[in-house]
UniProtKB/TrEMBL annotation:
It comes from Deinococcus arenicola. The lineage of its organism: Bacteria, Thermotogati, Deinococcota, Deinococci, Deinococcales. Signal peptide: none annotated. Residues 20-72 form the YiaAB two helix domain. The chain crosses the membrane at residues 23-42, 48-66. This is YiaA/YiaB family inner membrane protein. It comes from the Bacteria. Coiled coil: none annotated. Keywords: Membrane, Transmembrane, Transmembrane helix. Pfam families: YiaAB (PF05360).
Length: 97
């Protein structure tokens, strides 16, 4: 509770709401379940099902890795911008005085 309260009082701390996090996990669970069940009931040989299961697994893992990498890049860029802004403010304050 204190973490979410801090996020609302400090604009530098961003946190997703519990409702949004629940929605994301629920959507992911439903999509993965429907994909696995859909592959299971396909009227094809076992090796084709295996190939589709393997593709689903690797695609999901790749998507999670990509989203993590994009999030890390975004946070890094935000940090670099904050440091640059702080340096600019420091230079301007020395110049003004």
């Amino acid at each position: 509770m204190t973490q979410n309260t801090a996020a609302y009082t400090n604009p530098d701390l961003l946190d997703d709401s519990p409702a949004w996090t629940s929605f994301i996990w629920l959507s992911f669970g439903i999509a993965m379940t429907l994909m696995i069940v859909g592959i299971y009931y396909l009227p094809v040989d076992w090796w084709i099902r295996g190939y589709l299961y393997m593709g689903t697994l690797f695609l999901t893992a790749s998507m999670l890795t990509l989203s993590k990498a994009l999030r890390d890049r975004h946070e890094y860029t935000r940090l670099v911008n904050r440091v640059a802004s702080a340096r600019t403010e420091q230079v301007l304050s020395k110049y003004e005085s």
